[in-house]
Design brief:
The chain is of the alpha/beta class. The chain is 41% helix and 18% strand.
């Protein structure tokens, strides 16, 4: 690998088509994302067949735009990194097939990146001084995990959700409240106008001694029951209050578990990643609590919290440095977890 290493990152794990060029794992030269929200919002969730077909339509133009914005050609690349899981199998296969074709055509190393690890590496594009060991909380629509990293490629899972992921319950509650899809950003905005004390929702597993797992199905059910109960009584529920109380319950659990993990591992750096990392209340509370513990908090800008090719390119650079290359039999791994290969 050359001293100046340019990596093209491709992500088609779910419904967003992303391509980006990153220099040496830390410098973002371009980042292009095509969102499919307008295609899926009418269904209240992602339709896998629509997602994969849309990826096929836009992936080549998206890659061309990423290279053009970076001011480079395929011949100047040092590797092609692509998400191979977890995600929707049809969507993943579009990105993998494209990356394989480009890798073969231009004789470039093929790098298969774990999407969950990719979210962590969005933090490496912030310009922050990141040092190991550290703890990262990855909070997204499909995953909620606390992980401990001793170094690149050395991951220990400290805790994970036992049922619904945090982002998943944001979307389901938003759908029940007729707020549209995706629901996380809408609830975040609406909650700023509400009273979190108007409802009391459960904070499952928050007081389990030393345990770092999460459970969010209970708070989701409690919110849905509150909506049904108040509707049957003919009462008007103020959406902002409901959103604020729900969000507060989820954020409280995420923050308390994070603090517990920090104390158990005695680290000085904490990373936040994934789509829910864009949540303003979560950022605010984590910053306040970690600052009191003299722990440095880093999180990506909002545009790098959701799925994108930039985080895959950054992770791909470090994979390449470790010699973690993919073979031509690379396939989609829709149920991949942290540390999976």
């Amino acid at each position: 690998m050359s001293r100046q290493s340019l990596i093209l990152g491709i992500d088609t794990s779910c419904d967003d088509t992303g391509a980006a060029v990153v220099l040496n794992g830390r410098t973002l030269l371009s980042n292009v994302v095509s969102s499919q929200d307008s295609f899926h919002c009418r269904f209240g969730g992602i339709v896998p067949e629509i997602a994969s077909r849309r990826h096929l339509e836009v992936i080549n133009p998206i890659i061309d735009e990423a290279l053009a914005k970076a001011g480079i050609t395929f011949r100047e690349l040092d590797g092609i990194a692509v998400t191979f899981g977890p995600g929707l199998v049809g969507s993943l296969l579009v990105g993998i097939s494209t990356a394989k074709a480009l890798s073969f055509a231009f004789d470039l190393p093929l790098i298969a990146v774990n999407h969950l690890e990719g979210h962590i590496y969005a933090n490496f594009l912030t310009g922050a001084n990141i040092s190991f060991p550290l703890i990262c909380m990855v909070v997204s629509g499909g995953h909620t995990s606390l992980i401990y990293m001793k170094n690149h490629g050395h991951i220990e899972i400290l805790g994970r959700t036992r049922d619904d992921a945090a982002g998943e319950v944001f979307d389901k509650v938003a759908r029940a409240m007729d707020l549209g899809f995706p629901g996380g950003a809408v609830i975040d905005r609406l909650s700023q106008q509400g009273d979190a004390a108007a409802f009391s929702f459960p904070r499952a597993l928050m007081n389990e001694d030393g345990k770092l797992d999460f459970s969010f199905s209970g708070v989701k059910t409690a919110v849905l029951n509150s909506i049904r109960r108040e509707t049957e009584k003919g009462n008007r529920v103020k959406p902002a209050d409901l959103a604020a109380a729900f969000q507060e319950a989820v954020v409280d659990v995420l923050v308390e578990k994070s603090l517990l993990a920090v104390r158990q591992k005695d680290i000085k750096q904490f990373l936040l990643a994934g789509g829910v990392a864009a949540n303003g209340q979560l950022r605010k509370k984590l910053r306040q609590r970690l600052s009191a513990e003299k722990i440095e908090l880093t999180y990506p800008p909002v545009e790098l919290c959701t799925d994108n090719g930039a985080m895959i390119a950054s992770a791909g650079y470090y994979y390449l440095r470790q010699g973690r290359l993919a073979s031509w039999d690379l396939n989609a791994a829709p149920n991949l977890e942290f540390g999976g290969t």
